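Entry for the shared binder. Reason: the reviewer on the internal report wants the predicted structure included alongside the sequence.
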Amino acid sequence: MSNMKKVINSVSISLLVSALMVSGSAMATPDSAGATLKKVKEAGVLKCGVSTGLPGFSSTDAKGNWEGIDVEFCRAVAAAVLQDASKVQFVPLTAKERFTALQSGEIDILSRNTTWTMQRDSALGINFVGVNYYDGQGFMVSKELGIASAKELDGASVCIQSGTTTELNLADYFRMHGMAFKPVVFDTSDQTVKGFEAGRCDVLTSDQSQLYALRIKLADPSSAVVLPEVISKEPLGPVVAQGDDQWFNIAKWTLNVMVNAEEYGIDQTNVDSMKKSTDPNVLRLLGVDGPKGQGLGLADDWSYQVLKQVGNYGDSFERTVGTGSPLKIARGLNALWNDGGIMYAPPVR
């Protein structure tokens, strides 16, 4: 058995064991619609699983406050359900811990740069709410190596975070191109970037957005470069446990409202005046007309609270990972469907 086959088999067995562990813990999930909403209302706080620290997505600032696009989605759900975006308890989780925490009820929702895959969607007892960031896996190398393409990485040692889809993508890519690699595995993204900086590996692989986020954690960010190749599709999005369709709908439509609001030009600064709009799409979106909150078990102004307290999707993107943030990532695929991207939400009606 080649070293490569050993690596692939080891990763496959690890994923199978994780799936079985999660399936077992799924017995503790709510078994009726409304259980999670009732639980959150009684607690007066939303428990939201986030990463252990990934700038732009979920990390703490100098004062210990959580920030990032995944964090803002948690706050949006709290605004919809509890009328107060500040009522969120953030629970930092490693990639290996995240699904078990959701299924065991330790958290109410997972918003942690998680890739939507068939295996996860069909076998782990979870539902993906949607996509809040379209990503793809890439590679970061030290500039002094003089490497310009991932196809020059034959024989490289690769720093990687365990329990992620990037492990399997990495094995697939190197096998397809007839190249060998040596995995250097860590539990958290922080450990991974420290391993890279300490010279434990030649290459760090992760979703490209994370590479840009991790690069600014280096003592000298200009010492590393992100290679141009994108080797996978990584649709990232929030996740809830299966078994409570009402909660699934609440989370799903919170994201949909944020995306639709950007399309119709509704933001934090104009949401009050937009209540007087003559556009029926705007009036339905703000709960002035149309289905309002009854179907979700929420107050009629739930969507207004989301947009007033957190804002629309475009605003959230720009201040967390976009041009208004240190990451300065272009919208690209994450632009709205009518602006060159693929971000699209079903209508509110």
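Summary line for the report: The chain has twelve helices and 14 strands.
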